[in-house]
Description:
The protein is of the alpha/beta class and about 575 residues long. The protein is about 35% helix and about 25% strand. The strands form 4 sheets. It has a 6-stranded mixed beta sheet, sandwiched between helices. A hairpin with a 2-residue loop joins strand 14 (about 360-365) and strand 15. Helix 4 packs across helix 5 (about 130-140). The chain is globular, with a radius of gyration of 25 Å.
Amino acid sequence: MSNLLSIQDLKVAFRMGKVDGVMQRQLAVKGVSFDVPENSTVALVGESGSGKSVTAMSILNLLPSNAEREGRILFQGRDLLQASLSDLQAIRGRDIACVFQDPMSSLNPVFDVATQICEPLIKHMGMSRRQALVRAEELLHEVGIPEPKRRLKAYPHEMSGGQQQRVMIAVALACSPKLLIADEPTTALDVTIQRQVMELMARLKESHKMSLLFISHDLGVVGEISDQVVVMRHGQVRENAPVAQIFNAPQDAYTKALLACRPSLSENPARLMVIDDHIAGRGAGNSAVVKDDSAPVIMEVTGLQKSFWLKEGLFGKREFKAVKGVNFKLRKGHTLGVVGESGSGKTTMGLTLLRLHEPTGGQVLFDGKDLLKMSGPDWQKMRRRIQVVFQNPYASLNPRFTIGQTLREPMEIHGIGANTAEREARAVALLNKVGLDESAMGKYPHEFSGGQRQRIAIARCLTLQPEVLVLDEAVSALDVSVQAQVLNLLKDLQDEFGLSYIFISHDLAVVKFISDEVLVMQNGDVVEQALTRELIAAPREEYTRRLLGAVPRGYQGPAPAAA
Length: 563
């Protein structure tokens, strides 16, 4: 099989400005080499900062202006590093197309779907607007968008995340490219939509006879879609082998560590292994301890409802019931997992508990008092005891506050600590608790990685000594090794402080690791509720079985033959 793309000794450095008259450069990719054969899927795998996205974006030179590239990138024998801008523009979209992680950042919000699919067809294929519209409708049908003709007139914000990603794939496929670069295309999607998008991309790869360069940090996803896997760390290739070998007989310690980091539906360790644990030869520990099912109830929710009123016609409106009568009990020191697809109502339920959405009906008893009826000073005092950690650590911290200010502010509002020095000492102690040191106090959020920012968000919650934490997709944006560190941290904090968690997630493997009981939601209703071990072993509802079946399990094929 001939190679469609060959990357040879690629180096990428970023100019960082001059110091004492000398230009400083940061080397992000350090001599990377691999091939993408025709009609095959090659996966680039690694943690955030491994250089995998920089490597892929180097192919079409979609890098910032301060990037410098060396080496060779041969596409059908032609070196793209030597190609002019006009030559690259002719290749982009026509011969090589890209699908990125966040479709809302890639799709233009002011253009409808038709305009965005038609653009490459008119530019590269020379079609008229009428011809392009016919082809755009065919493409939407091909990627599984219902009512494609009607959806051509829709704008990106009128579609779900899964539909937006399908539109991005339709745009990328418009000119039948020979190579599709997919950069984390399923990371932000729930498991069932992720499964649909993976199956769609595999099917389209076969039908269009194209190659796929698939970039991900999740080896579970990679194992199900790839023929060849390239494992990267710190800008270098650590292992390059067929998918069967990577999963059944990995050679590099880092590859083995990546495989060991992800929570599993079949095992139940007390702690997840992180990269450094595996490389150092430390074990994951014993099986998780089953908690006391008779622990005191700290929160009891009865008939919780939330409706939104949507405009209909010129003067009319209709009720949309996002949460339809949720009931559960949360015990002290326990974790209640809440799972479901996007649109199931799980996040709305969590925000309604906190009254970030005002409820339509129901009762939330906390310490014998109904949270939904409180107001003024009583509610302010109660807010100390229930805190929230949001999904996006990049958006939940004020970029203009130092970390010290971020941690002191809630203590100042709620009168915790006698003076600034005492609050400062408490903030430093909490940073140490979440694995950061005192030097973080004077820094700003942009100086930290996503995992570090999520640790800071957790420390901010702990400044108020809460009893309940609502964690809304708090680890879904993190790569597997950082996710393991944060999950272990949450377990440690729960054991130390007796915290109770409401853990909202679309990832059942993560929920199984951290939760004692699981609530399964669909269309605003609770369809199943059980102890975690019982629900995973014997789900009663077809919807729950479908969620479990959609969890990526990695490569399931035969072991490689002995040499």
